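Journal club prep, notes for RB
We'll compare a predicted complex against what the paper describes. Inputs for the pyridoxal-5'-phosphate case:
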Amino acid sequence: MPILQMRIMFMSGSINHNKKLEFIEKELQERRNNNNLRELNAIYPKDAVTAIKNGKPLINFSSNDYLGLSKHPQIITTSQDYLNRYGTGSTASRLVTGNYDIHKKLEEKIAKLCGKEAALLFNTGFQANSTIIPALVNQKSLVLCDRLVHNSILQGILLSKAQWKRYKHNDLSHLETLLKKAVSQGYNRILIITETVFSMEGDRSDVDSLIQLSQQYNTLLYLDDAHALGIMGDKGMGLTAQKPGIDISLGTFGKAMGSFGAFITTSKLMRDYLINCCPGFIYTTALPPAVIGSIDAAFDIIPSLDQEREYLLQKVDYLQNNLRNLGYQVINSSSPIIPVMIGNEKKTLQLSQFLEKNGILATAIRPPTVPQNTARIRLVLSSQHQPEHINYLIQLLQQYHES
Ligand SMILES: *Cc1c(COP(=O)(O)O)cnc(C)c1O
């Protein structure tokens, strides 16, 4: 019998086409039942802190635009200028014809501002984490990561096929116990990877101690600085800038930079290696000119925003203290990310809906983004929030708590 005919017989015999999508319906139904179903809701970003949803203006307490730079006139103008001069797309991978002088100059500028030997652009933080890690470690390696690292880091670890263990959140003595055990176990390499500011908690890790442990146990060290860049460290260059002893620091342009994309700072040697061996760098079209323009301008502006950074951290303290006084459970965060812990998914959704009804956008964050029973409202402050915005939020949360 011809092979093609056999295949057709086999397929029609073994797959019931009416049922092949049943697993999808089942999964979605389960999520609906658990109040975990995710849906896309369109908004219009009127200004840095106002979102229009269903025709109604809402004060946005969920975006990562910490400095309101997505609407900064100078950044928009520079982006338009790059767009006019270079066109809409970069037309190919960096390794083909997509490597413009603007990509190269931006990398040199970032490396200099961060006090590192080299920088390398990536299209997103997700793409960087999920494809750099597998270029660094393999089946014979061990990865040690914080229990709460971002999903893009987990994807990278899984793709690498390395052995991996998670240490308790921000517990570096647990990390050291794992390191002590690991050094005699014959791994070809050990990689420590964590975030400097945790995206769903807002707390920080101890960068200096991580560097020290990495040196003591001779491991690779990879730090994800996505939520520190722009708002922390000297001149807003993040918590890893100017610090030797970190093999790779990741920053993203989609948060405080108000744009899109990502970069790492690293050594020249590591940069050369990734240009040759990191699929997420090689097999993708370079960032488009308009994006490069916006990032270039953002790096000119961010060092001068010390006042905004100070205002922001003052307001973090103010909001946290007020919420605690009202009886809310708030993670002790030292960043503009302020998670109000509710626990139960349904209650978290109810609070989010109550806020929205009253003019505030504050998204519910539910498992599996965060661990079971830790659903939360992740409030995010921006330097563009005025005191009356914050006081109105506090007033609403008081009203909710008392009702
Ligand atoms: C947002 C984020 C990323 C992903 O960055 P994108 O550029 O948005 O893909 C990676 N790591 C952390 C910690 C993040 O918060």
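Talking point for the session: The longest strand covers residues 337-343.
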